[in-house]
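Something for you to look into today, if you have time. Could you write out one complete protein record for me, on any chain you like? Leave the record below and I will have a look.
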Amino acid sequence: MMIEAFIAGSDGVFIGACKKGECHYSTGNLHAAGRVMLVRKVLEAAGINPDRLVIRYMSAAEANKFVEYTTGFQKAISDLGPLGGPEGISGDDLAVKLEAAKAALEGKKLRWVAGKLVEFQEKSNLYGENFTGHEIRRLIEETAADECRLREMLARLEAGPASVVELAAAMKQPARIVLRSMADLRRMGLAELDGVDGRTVRWRAVAEPEIAYE
């Protein structure tokens, strides 16, 4: 729902949540905080300022805080400007990146991460190790970046064959990173060789309903 708001043209999204420890749904606000963190990382990976999405905590009786938070958020978004403008992303590219972000969030990998965030913070793993906040943020950041990159590459390849250099230029990503991701897409059977023109190798997308992870 958060990413859908941006796709629909919103310049910012504000999430209001119960104070920690006061949620009617027990850990509902903790799950919400984790999902907001995840979507912020996905937005950042897509080249969009993550400050366009915020979560603030308050009780139903704190109308003054609600006014303070929403007024401050409205001003912050107004200062940032229209979605994509200050980020330097044009209309068509913005649409591609947002749809790639949506596909990444709907994919199995990020859905699994979202479902495990609270567990990561409250419980240890099979070896009795606890994840620190820094480790969790790093996991989310790396996973979000990889997923967004793969989804955007697939979207661009579905529009027509392209080389790694062309994709890197369109996505404003280092060619070596795009090359590594292309190898991942090829390994998963989602991209295949389209042809070679001189020294230029072009790739095309292979229709697949869901990225299949090993």
